[in-house]
Design a protein that fits this description.
Length: 106
Amino acid sequence: MIVAPISTCVKPEHVQAFIAATPENACHSVQEAGIARFDFIQQEDDPTHFMLIEVFRSPEAQQAHCETAHYRAWRDAVADLLAEPRVSVRCLPLFPDQALWKYPDA
């Protein structure tokens, strides 16, 4: 599995638009067979900073996600809202056990 935390900084005047645009991508993403988890969080002391924490079942699943219509629509919709480019890293999950990285009804 691959954990991909993505750091995103949004222009202050576009925070609400970013919050409105992102859940649709997340909802569609968790329905992909290759995604075990997708969290959308906002930094408490800096409301312009967000993290998308995506857990993919394989590197191929991560690539397939980037080719979906819902991801591309979200990427294009938020492009002008960002204060700087998104930063993503690839991590390997150590804890909890990978079997626990799923939604209950997935």
